[in-house]
């Protein structure tokens, strides 16, 4: 079948190409520490060890139509400051212990998330695009900014 047929079919189905943005971690002085392409609907996660209990914590974000959204969080227990917030997702038990809060749908203002990176015992890590970046190796004790930059 010809190109005209396929073009007409795509228009009828209202199919749009998947767009990609850039997830960037910017350190002190504007240094770019990490830069990864993230497709629309793509996900990335920050993981670390809780500074008090040492248990695993993970926040997972998604690119939804060009917006950085906190989609889900993993928490090892209901320690101080960890747990359910009414109207902000639903809790599910996680395989192996702990729990997930899913469907949080919490937009991050200006697609920018500031983070004070923990020392090596906190072990902040960024999981994106099949890679794991150990932020505690790159910027321990420093303020970094995660930005989702959409391509026009």
Which secondary structure elements does this structure contain, and how are they paired or packed?
Elements: H1 3-13, E1 20-26, E2 32-39, E3 43-49, E4 56-64, E5 67-75, E6 90-93, E7 99-102, E8 106-107, E9 112-116, E10 125-128, E11 131-134, H2 135-139, E12 143-150
Antiparallel strand pairs: 1-2, 1-12, 3-4, 3-10, 4-5, 5-7, 5-8, 6-7, 9-12, 10-11
How would you describe this protein?
This protein is mainly beta. It is 11% helix and 47% strand. It is built from two helices and twelve strands. The chain has helices spanning 3-13, 135-139, and strands spanning 20-26, 32-39, 43-49, 56-64, 67-75, 90-93, 99-102, 106-107, 112-116, 125-128, 131-134, 143-150. Strands 3, 4, 5, 6, 7, 8, 10 and 11 form an eight-stranded antiparallel sheet that branches. Strands 2-1-12-9 form a four-stranded antiparallel sheet, with no helix packed on it. A hairpin with a 6-residue loop joins strand 3 (43-49) and strand 4. It is globular, with a radius of gyration of 18 Å. The two termini are 32 Å apart. The relative contact order is 0.22. Mean pLDDT is 86; it is low at 3-17.
- Mean pLDDT across the residues is 86
Sketch the topology as an H/E string, one letter per element: HEEEEEEEEEEEHE
The fraction of residues assigned to DSSP E strands is over 45%
| Percent helix range | 10-25%
Which term fits the overall shape? globular
- What's the count of strands? 12
Q: What does the largest sheet look like?
A: 8 strands, antiparallel
Extract low-pLDDT stretches.
Answer: 3-17
Radius of gyration, whole Å: 18 Å
Give the helix tally: 2
- SS class: mainly beta
Euclidean distance between termini CA atoms: 32 Å
